[in-house]
What we know:
disordered C terminus, globular, TIM Barrel, eight-stranded parallel β-barrel, single chain, 11 helices, alpha/beta
Amino acid sequence: MSSLLRAASPPSPVETALSPQNPCVLVIAHRGVFDRAPENSVAALERAVALGVDMMELDTQANRDGTLLVVHDDTLERTTTGGGPVAASSDADRGRLRLRAGEGGGDAPATDHPLPTLAEMLEAARGRILLNIDTKHPRDLPAVGRLVLDMGMEGEVIVKAEVDPSAPRWPAEDFPFFGQIPFMPVFKLQSGRAKAQVEAVARIAPAMIECHFDSLAALHEARGAREAAGIRHWANSLDCSHSLDFSDSRAAEDPEAVWGALLDTGCGAIQTDRAEALIAWLGTRHRSAAR
């Protein structure tokens, strides 16, 4: 296909969502919405779709048969009725497993929901919700890329991996799918270095970056370079992300102090475990970022 024809192609759903011209703050549901369903389940995806969430983040890693499963931990105990390493489990094992309710744990009851494969989640999301794929182990990135391309889902996902902005090249750049599937660098913004960090990652023209931060000053420092490069900033308000005190728990008491403060730095996407509350609060701001 000629470059002229490619240029004439309409933007994909993920390109449209991440475009600087999209004024909406993207709501990302961490492992889906699991207030009424197990985390990382098809049911959690369905709940996210029903609420109008923009994107679901999910975790994937391969079992010993090479099947990409949707599970966060390296072991099966917390979220399923099984046990042992995910990498040592088989497809036959998966058929017997059931997910535990909510975020799991030994006291969480078993449900009827099976442990899903990445292929099943991609199909469930098709045309309905964007997916952010967190590949838990770099060894699985080639398989993730092949599956996304084989299913024709490259326009509806973004794959992420941690990077060192100061490195001349990142391991993710050596995987076959790089440049064919949207890629999001993940790193920590550091005060006094944030502008240079963003300028360094801008060389691959990412549509979005996911950043932890050591201060709000770092977010403000990075803003000019990020906007100049047309990069959307994804922030986390998850309790488990330890982004200072910018947490979902504090947002439940004072959303303006948490979500509002993040938007005031130019943040254009927030990952949360309280998607319904964030959507409702953003309604008061017309879901428009201060960028």
